[in-house]
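4.2 Preliminary Data

To establish feasibility before requesting continued support, the project team ran the inverse folding procedure on a target of 203 residues. The structure was first converted into the token representation described in Section 3, and no sequence information of any kind was made available to the design step. The complete token record follows.
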């Protein structure tokens, strides 16, 4: 299999952590690629018409995107306990939390593009603040939930780890830990996990 990815992308990191946790990372060739909201990556667009990462080319030649679909597929390829719950209420709950963390990352990435790509004279401060409020609304929801996770590390926790890691990497000045001590303590512990430590982004 081939994974179109970038080591700085939190969504690609989600797929990479998942593969490590599932014990199948050795079966995946990582194709490090650059994407931009203003310049089309033509090679990637031939695999994913949205030209977004991650995109996974399976052994049969089919391309899957985006990270929720890729992770569900990877969960069918290993013999360990599934990283997604079985169908039923627990699965719907996990999918809801996955949607929350993906939405938080969408908002954070949009802030990154606005602040790093858009010309300074055209940046919209109120729009950035609106996206930031989405991120902090999600953080508050996770703060109330984190105590129930115990030692669990499945699709929910993978998404949370990638979200918090991206905030540390791109928005350290937001100081998310100040109002979310339970989440901060959980992340400190989880950051020592091999799959998480091995995929920490660096400039």
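Position-by-position output of the design step:
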């Amino acid at each position: 299999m081939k994974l179109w990815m970038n080591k700085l992308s939190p969504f690609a990191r989600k797929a990479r952590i998942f593969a490590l946790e599932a014990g199948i990372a050795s079966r995946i060739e990582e194709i490090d690629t650059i994407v931009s909201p203003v310049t089309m990556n033509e090679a990637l667009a031939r695999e994913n018409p949205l030209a977004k990462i991650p995109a996974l080319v399976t052994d049969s030649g089919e391309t899957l995107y985006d990270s929720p679909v890729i992770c569900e597929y990877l969960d069918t390829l290993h013999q360990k306990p599934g990283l997604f719950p079985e169908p039923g209420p627990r699965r719907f709950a996990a999918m809801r939390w996955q949607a929350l963390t993906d939405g938080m990352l969408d908002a954070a990435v949009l802030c990154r593009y606005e602040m790093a790509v858009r010309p300074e004279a055209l940046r919209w401060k109120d729009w950035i603040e609106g996206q930031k409020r989405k991120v902090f609304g999600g953080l508050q929801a996770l703060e109330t939930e984190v105590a129930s996770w115990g030692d669990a590390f499945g699709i929910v926790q993978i998404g949370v780890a990638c979200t918090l890691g991206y905030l540390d990497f791109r928005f350290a000045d937001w100081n998310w830990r100040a109002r979310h001590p339970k989440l901060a303590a959980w992340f400190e512990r989880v950051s020592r996990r091999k799959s998480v430590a091995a995929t920490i982004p660096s400039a």
